[in-house]
Specification:
Number of helices: 12
Structural class: mainly alpha
Strand order of the largest sheet: 1-2-3
CATH topology of the domain at 107-200: Cyclin A, domain 1
Helix content: 40-55%
CATH class of the domain at 107-200: Mainly Alpha
Distance between the termini: 77 Å
Shape: elongated
CATH architecture of the domain at 107-200: Orthogonal Bundle
Strand content: under 5%
Order of helices and strands: EEEHHHHHHHHHHHH
């Protein structure tokens, strides 16, 4: 607002949006008050208000309504902070009930609501990033649109979508890890995962065995020297094509077993098999094959 001060005749003024006053910069005289100031800023939480956000929370596929629905506050106060009377409180309670019913009015909405809750639980159990969860929610929504949820348990499709997202985004989570966190059988999870692969033709790359070394090494508390040596050996084996068609966890466990023997670290086949999630026979046979073919590398 450009107006001349009536005291010092300075043309520099400041408009206070919170009080609706126009103040002179030089002498501080209030030139106008109670003016209407348009403010389009909206904040739906304390964090957004403090950060002066211009809009509400961003949309997210992990929420059943993508964050676009209305939210009626549970506080029994009006906009001025005064407590509402009993009749208005009863009206607001009825509005909250109908608001919830309209948000989950169809079986599809209710299914997405339960699925979003499961994704949130698995995110914290498996320490996954928001990107992986968003991708998993996207795959699950596509599966629901193609009516793949019918006749199958919701948790199996949720776990399969999460496993597909982990494989696609190269998050090191095995099928057994997700099955244990989801409290379902690995066989049911594998069946649902194969269904998603067939329906969506996903481009899933095989896990890198070198990245599985760190997981096994951390579980057993191996030295950094052994871990780095195993990673270098696996990179050489991969360059020669020796990792094709092999289980990544089994291959990583077998290489670690050979390196531990070489570095005089006492580690049995059973310990490595339990940490890698494979059998002792796999570790033993794969170690014999590697020591025969790649003895010069190891």
């Amino acid at each position: 607002m450009s107006s001349k001060c009536t005291v010092c005749y300075d043309e520099k003024t400041v408009t206070d949006n919170s009080t609706g006053e126009v103040i002179c910069r030089s002498c501080g005289t209030v030139l106008a008050e109670n003016i209407e100031v348009s403010n389009e800023r909206r904040a739906f939480s304390k964090e957004e208000f403090e950060s002066r956000a211009q809009t509400g929370a961003p949309t997210s596929l992990t929420r059943h309504d993508m964050g676009l629905s209305t939210i009626i506050s549970r506080a029994d106060k009006d906009a001025s902070g005064r407590k509402i009377d009993a009749s208005m409180k009863a009206t607001m309670d009825r509005l909250r009930t109908w608001d919830f019913r309209t948000q989950a009015g169809t079986p599809t909405d209710r299914n997405l609501m339960y699925a979003s809750g499961e994704f949130s639980k698995l995110k914290h159990k498996l320490a996954l990033t928001d990107t992986v969860i968003e991708k998993a929610a996207y795959i699950y929504r596509k599966a629901q649109q193609r009516k793949l949820v019918r006749g199958r348990t919701m948790i199996s499709l949720v776990a399969a979508s999460l496993y597909a997202a982990c494989r696609e985004l190269d998050a090191q989570r095995t099928l057994k890890d997700i099955a244990a966190a989801s409290n379902i059988k690995a066989k049911d999870l594998a069946r649902a995962y194969r269904l998603l692969l067939k329906e969506f033709d996903l481009d899933i790359q095989l896990p890198d065995p070198a990245k599985c070394v760190a997981k096994i090494s951390n579980r057993l508390g191996l030295s950094e020297r052994t871990t780095r040596h195993a990673v270098r050996v696996l990179e050489e084996i991969k360059r020669y094509g020796g990792s094709a068609g092999k289980d990544p966890m089994g291959l990583a466990g077998s290489v670690l077993y050979l390196i531990c023997n070489k570095n005089k670290e006492n580690m049995s086949q059973k310990q490595l098999a339990d940490a890698a999630g494979v059998t002792e026979v796999t570790i033993r046979n794969r170690a014999k094959e590697l020591s025969r073919k790649y003895s010069e590398i190891i």
